[in-house]
Amino acid sequence: LVGRTFKDTATEIKLSDDLIIGGKKVVIMAGPCSIEGEEQIMETARAVKKAGASILRGGAFKPRTSPYSFQGLGEEGLKLLKKAADETCLKVITEVMDPRDVELVGRYTDIFQVGARNMQNFYLLKELGHAELPVMLKRGLSASYNEFLMAAEYIMSEGNYNVILCERGIRTFEDYTRNTLDLVSIPVLKNLSHLPVVIDPSHGTGDWRLVGPAAKGAVAMGADGLTIEVHPEPAKALSDGQQSLKPAKFESLLEELEGIAEVS
Ligand code: PEP
Ligand code: MN
């Protein structure tokens, strides 16, 4: 079902009349790594809206490496995220980690995010295959293209065809960057599949100074969207501050991207 042999026209995922992932415009998802509180998410929502983004991201259930790190605000975070998005007319994307939370998260989001660590959580994928909302599936930390596409197949084979692929960097021998962002995945995945491809330059590099160049490269290579971490005060962020852009930097990045393709 994921393959070009099944369907040879690009899949368009329509969130509203003028917001289509896989359409003509590059769709921008932006927001903090984690929802930390009302003021933080409201301020970020206003800033990314003003800059030109159309989807607000933010995690309430966080897949942290250490069990002692901030794990997210849970349902309280989802409520704050939805409120901030509604007040700024943005759509919502947020991560679901557990099949038991699909119903809960679905009440607050417009797109489910499956994190890299859960790419092969087949029970979660099957559960999302029965959901009504689109799913953005992030590539596993060391997943091949075939493994990535087969994970998408799990969702589609249960009936949900609205799947977005997200390249977020893979683990290689190089440890200067947090991950190695594989931009060639854009044409490769588009040759193999009809699904839209989104790039995450934040987790892909782990360094806010590299986010802009990686985002520009991704757009030049044909990405259908970008997901970018933005925080009003990155130095105080409870997660991923080092890779988060300040609002002003994010705004100037979107202006630069407009020179390459139409963004929304
Ligand atoms: C995220 O987008 O917040 C995230 C945790 O990403 P990943 O699953 O790609 O590490
Ligand atoms: Mn993050």
UniProtKB/TrEMBL annotation:
Residues annotated as signal peptide: none
Top enzyme category: transferase
EC number(s) per entry: 2.5.1.54
Domain DAHP synthetase I/KDSA, residue spans: 13-258
Gene Ontology molecular function, alphabetical: 3-deoxy-7-phosphoheptulonate synthase activity; aldehyde-lyase activity
Domain of life: Bacteria
GO BP terms: aromatic amino acid family biosynthetic process
UniProt keyword list: Transferase
Name under which the protein is recorded: 3-deoxy-7-phosphoheptulonate synthase
The organism's taxonomic lineage, starting at the top: Bacteria, Bacillati, Bacillota, Clostridia, Halanaerobiales
Included stretch of the parent chain: 72 to 335 of 339
